[in-house]
Amino acid sequence: MGTASRKKTSQSPRSPQGSKSRKSQSPSSRPASRSGLAKAAGAPSSRAAGRGKAAKASGSTSGKAAGKKLSAYARSGGRSSESAERAKARSRVAPATTDRAEKTSSTLKPVRKKIASSRSSKTTKSAASNAGGERLQKIMARAGVASRRNAEVLITEGRVFVNGEPVTELGARADAATDKIEVDGNVITSRGPRVYILLYKPTSTISAVSDPEGRPVVVDLITGVKQRIFPVGRLDYDAEGVLLMTNDGELTNKLIHPRARISKTYLVKVKGKPDQEAIRRLAEGVYLEDGRTLPARAKFVKAALENSWIELTVTEGRNHLVKRMCLKIGHPVAKIRRTDFAGIKLGALKAGEFRVLTKGEVEELKELKQTVIKARPRVKERRGRPLAKGRGKKDY
Fold first, then answer.
1. Is 335 part of a structural domain of the chain?
2. What stretches in the chain show pLDDT beneath 70?
3. CB-CB contact of 381 with 387 (8 Å)
4. Cβ–Cβ < 8 Å for 266, 337
5. Residue 135 in contact with residue 173, Cβ under 8 Å?
6. Which CATH number is 301's domain given?
7. Co-location of 298 and 219 in the same domain
8. Do residues 241 and 311 lie in contact, with contact meaning Cβ atoms separated by under 8 Å?
9. 250 and 215 share a domain?
10. Which of 236, 238, 248, 290 is catalytic?
């Protein structure tokens, strides 16, 4: 009996029927648990499969997305609470980040305003300090110290002083009449009263304060004047006539600026005898390499054996303008004399002589306005009919 019972007990766990029953029960129990979980979550697998099939049949993106969500939900075993908690956590973090961004933006705004205001104040101060006068390189070039480019180099190297202080900015300005400007210890301007002089510039002289080639300059012709003066504009080396000299930089800029259109009258000796058509072309404007000239006043004065004299009034300041205009009409210039500049005439002066301008002449120069010369219309003769009594061809 003992041995038999032991055999039965030992055979019972190893019986094939018991193992089969266990194997048969395990697969059936697993689907039951999964379906139960799905039902407990409220999303049956059959409905998810049906929705997935319907989405595939319709081909809509929303159906596919819903099917995917439901299948994932079924696989997860009803873990919707965790995802909901995560979503809630994200929603809680989002307002905090937006609040931080608003706080940082609100704190940065006044800083930006302060920076902008400080920059604007700095620019206004620097502009105000350099508002008057003209640029240093222009003053130095006109004084004959160096060309504009070389003057810029001198400024950047710290070799230029204005009223005892070094200047290294290229945009710095000064007044040649009131400021003391020094280059390498040499004073190029000095304070004092303003001087206005009319010079009859002779030929073979340079319209400058100094010349690197050693040629005579117009400043050498002025004697008895303590102030340092400079010429207003330029007159060619081989030309003669009116040339103003002053230490007033403001008036000089006004008279030589291209927009000023100051009238300048020349008595020109040209080769040959220009006809009325050539004179008309000078008056209406001719085409040069740098553009067409503005209307001018042109008049034939007299003729000689080989040359002729014409009078030409222009309002531009281009280099060698009169010479190029006459060359354009086929009559090169042999001699040129400027008889009038901004209403100031030579009078009884001879070549090399000068005089001080009167107060009235200086005031007229300061109040001078732009000169506009209108081109005269061309006169056409009527064929077969004489002109009216007392009228003739217009002389340009």
1. yes
2. 1-132, 143-144, 189-191, 375-396
3. yes
4. yes
5. yes
6. 3.30.2350.10
7. yes
8. no
9. yes
10. 236
Q: What is the pLDDT of residue 159?
A: 92
Q: What is the number of helices (H) and of strands (E) in the chain?
A: 11, 17
To the question of pTM greater than 0.70 for the whole model, the response is: no
All residues at 6 or more sequence positions from 144 whose CB lies less than 8 Å from its CB, including other chains: 208, 209, 210, 211, 217
Cα diameter, the chain: 173
CB proximity list for 190: less than 8 A, separation 6 or greater: 180, 227, 228
Angle (CA) 391 284 291, round 5°: 180
Q: Are 292 and 309 contained in the same domain?
A: yes
Q: Which helix (H) or strand (E) is 299 found in, with range?
A: strand 297-303
Contacts of 80 (CB under 8 A, 6+ apart): 41, 73
pLDDT at residue number 222: 94
- Segments forming the whole domain that contains residue 331: 196-366
Please report the pLDDT score of residue 24 as a whole number: 43
Are residue 255 and residue 294 in the same domain, yes or no?
yes
C-beta of residue 255 within 8 angstroms of C-beta of residue 262: yes
The whole-angstrom separation of Cα 255 and Cα 134 is: 14
Tokens of 387: 């002109």
Active site residue 275: no
